[in-house]
Sequence to fold (532 residues):
Amino acid sequence: MKKSIAIFFALVIGMPAAWAQAQDCTSFAAQAPASMALKAEIWPDSPAIPAAGNAPAVPALKAHCKISGQIRERVGVSEKGDPRKFYIGFELRLPADWNGRLLYQGGGGNDGVVRPAYGPQATGDVLALNRGFAVVTTDAGHQGPWADFGWDAVARVDNAYNAHDLVAQMAKNLVERYYTRPAAKSYFIGCSGGGRQAMMFTQRFPQHFDGVIAMAPAMRVSKGATIAAMWDTQALTAIAPKNADGKPVLSQALSNDDLSLLRKGILDKCDALDGVLDGLVSNPAACKFDVRSLQCKGVKQASCLSRPQVRALTKMFTGPKNSKGEALYTGWAWDAGIGHPANDWRMWKLGTSTSDKPNSRHVFLMQDALQGYFVTPPDRSLTALAFNFDKDPARMDAHSWMFDTAADAELKGFKARGGKLLIAHGMADPIFSPLESEDYFKRLQATEGGKDMSRLFQIPGMGHCAGGATTDSWDGLSAMVDWVEKGQAPEMIIAKGTQVFKDRTRPLCAYPKIAMYSGSGNIEDAANFSCQ
Fold:
């Protein structure tokens, strides 16, 4: 929001009494060190603003001071070898009614964008900013969402960890200067790439945060999940029907009807394992679905999957391997969410393009990351279909240590400072396997002190980070605050649906417990379920 709009709101709505720091906000930018560029904007209590044209929607926000800034400006190198300007951009929002806490809001994808610092993830119905948290976000040290920053060595390091350390330190310093006292507690919430950043903080910089929520963490994003994306793209392209030019159309490898058939097959086998038929696979450990049960006995029919489709799905859900049969990433869970049109499984794996130019996210996002900064040196000729599972994983070795966070399941430093870690993962996630989070959690729990400082919540039906045929809105932040500040470890968190199951609530249960139906009462009400 522009400052002029903020002033307009102040005139129309009236400056709230809580806005005692208005002058502090306007003068705060001038107090910045010479190495830091800051801009301050006054935001009084303001109503939600719907999206219009190119302007994104803005939720209703309580009065705060918005600080936009840049640090570490420098000249690096572009993909073409020309000079390119880099800096670490950030946004810090300082509420008028501060609760004494700081929240670092993680990024995602290739970063390169400063997202509004509202604190929207794992906060249920109330944004962290509106609860009184100071909230900070960053672009991770480069500008633009594509992986072309990978041609600059410093930008790679900034994106992987360095920018986050600097922004965390800077945010704490600015918070203390603004409120004249430090944050009593600091928290981190992130999903996907932000989930990787969450895990990175517990390992590289355990001193920064008291509580960390890692959602769908990209723990092996380079030498793991990216390889799986190439594996799946090749498996689906191999069975995709061809157009008039003889070129495969990736999106048509599985039709929407095929995915619905897959969903029905999974539900028929595994839905009732929690005591009720409700469109969710809430007992994934007991689900023994075999996709071969859907295979046509002869030619392809609407009621069954073709032999090539079954083989491709089996290959995908087993996980990528090299020619020696060595696993290159983990497998996947058979969750019914993967077949629901409201989930994002199609967009990641298949896309919707009706031409031979695929628009799946595995191709236009993961392939871009593969080319730009997961292989060393960067290589635009390395496409999803050209990826060699024997030779190309070695090209990721040089920098995989910077991005990947699955190896350290000790977290000695984070344990020593009393940190708490909550991992959450949608069981229908199409890009980072929930089984990888489960494996990491088991290894962490097996270490000394691991049981006291970590919890895992698996979310049936949920795709990547949010959405789908699931109950995906949940208040992990309150649970984390109670854990850190009151010693109350979360064993159950109530979630509700936002898309398909809009009137449904369900308990999310701390792994390995699952939500079981009591046998009576409204199945849309979490009160009739318990964690067992």
